[in-house]
Design goal:
single chain; 324 residues; alpha+beta; 8-stranded mixed sheet; 4-stranded antiparallel sheet; 8 helices; 36% helix; 26% strand; binds ligand 2P0
Length: 324
């Protein structure tokens, strides 16, 4: 009753921001992401008769109480599906800069869902696994698949149709995603709390909901036609809109650091010189820059020279869940 799975993290081009059901992790809008090849979580789950509670080892350390509770609550959902009450030992290695605007919860819960369900002998389709992973962390439902992935928000109250699907595999369009790390500290407001506050009281949230499905439609057309400029423009605009909703919340949420703004200005300038590149920012200070592989080296070098940038890592579209 033991299995190990690896899941890559993903970066949203069209963001998930806001829940309509917090218990089931049902989103207010559909979203679209690229699974990245360089950042991943590897998780081993073993269910054992002798355990009196779930055990967690996270990057060679006992996890925090909060992490343990999240993992345990999630495992209970899987225990209920499998009809078992055995506790498990969970050992997870995160090759993701945690809590710095990289979605470590996406790869973490995708790997945990895959390892735990395999350890219990459940034979699931990718879509069923996606629905389960979603209930650990919304963005985890996208990390089941490689390449370009859409998470359909669904309409059902039980969440069975709120599921991700691959729209293009990782080999079908090679783009570069440069992850620029400007602040590796613990972020100030979790995305969970940030999105909740925005839904509750930002007057701009309505503007988000009114336009995000058009953004998604446009991004899908751009991907289908391999139209880089169109994809970049809608991605960047969508990220800025998401951050604008947070600035309108009370108290406001600002994830950007000076290095964040430096990169945004640099990328905007770069486009004026005729080089296409676009940025996106999640619930943190780091910036991901989408560019064509032929421009990757030059842009990476220039980003490294910016004052507020600590590190730049090049990623490409990566694969979905694998079992080790
Ligand atoms: C995304 N983010 O689409 C958006 C954009 C951050 C900004 O999904 O509460 O860790 O666990 O469902 O998935 C990060 O939020 O939140 C996220 P929960 P999650 O990638």
């Amino acid at each position: 009753m033991k299995a190990t799975a690896r899941a890559n993290t993903n970066i949203a081009l069209i963001k998930y921001w806001g829940k309509r059901d917090e218990k089931l992790f049902l989103p207010m809008n559909s979203s679209l992401s690229i699974t990245l090849d360089r950042f991943y979580s590897t998780t081993t789950v073993e269910f054992m008769e002798e355990l009196k509670e779930d055990k967690l080892i996270f990057n060679n350390n006992p996890g925090s109480n909060e992490d343990r509770n999240k993992v345990s609550n999630f495992l209970t959902k899987i225990r209920n599906i499998a009809g078992t009450n055995l506790y498990a030992s969970v050992i997870t290695e995160n090759n993701v800069p945690t809590a710095a605007g990289f979605a470590s919860s996406a790869s973490g819960f995708a790997a945990l869902a895959a390892a735990a369900t395999k350890a219990l002998g459940l034979k699931l389709k990718d879509e069923e696994l996606s629905v389960i992973a979603r209930q650990g962390s919304g963005s985890a439902c996208r990390s089941i698949y490689g390449g370009y992935v859409e998470w359909d928000m669904g309409t059902r109250a039980d969440g069975r149709d709120s599921v991700a699907k691959q729209i293009l595999d990782e080999k079908q369009w090679k783009l570069t995603i440069l992850s620029a790390i400007v602040d590796s500290g613990i972020k100030k407001v979790s995305s969970r709390d940030g999105m909740k506050r925005t839904v509750e009281n930002s007057p701009y949230y309505k503007g988000w909901l009114d336009t995000v499905s058009d953004d998604l439609r446009e991004a899908k057309i751009a991907i289908k036609e391999r139209d880089f400029q169109r994809l970049g423009e809608v991605m960047e605009s969508n990220a800025l809109k998401m951050h604008a909703t947070m600035l309108g919340a009370r108290p406001p949420i600002l994830y950007w650091e000076s290095g964040t703004v430096e990169i945004m200005n640099y990328i905007t300038e770069l486009r004026r010189t005729g080089i296409p590149a676009y940025f996106t920012i999640d619930a943190g200070a780091n910036v991901k820059v989408l560019c064509l592989p032929e421009h990757e080296e030059g842009i990476k070098k220039a980003l490294m020279e910016l004052k507020g940038v600590l590190q730049v890592i090049a990623c490409y579209p990566g694969q979905g869940i694998s079992y080790l």
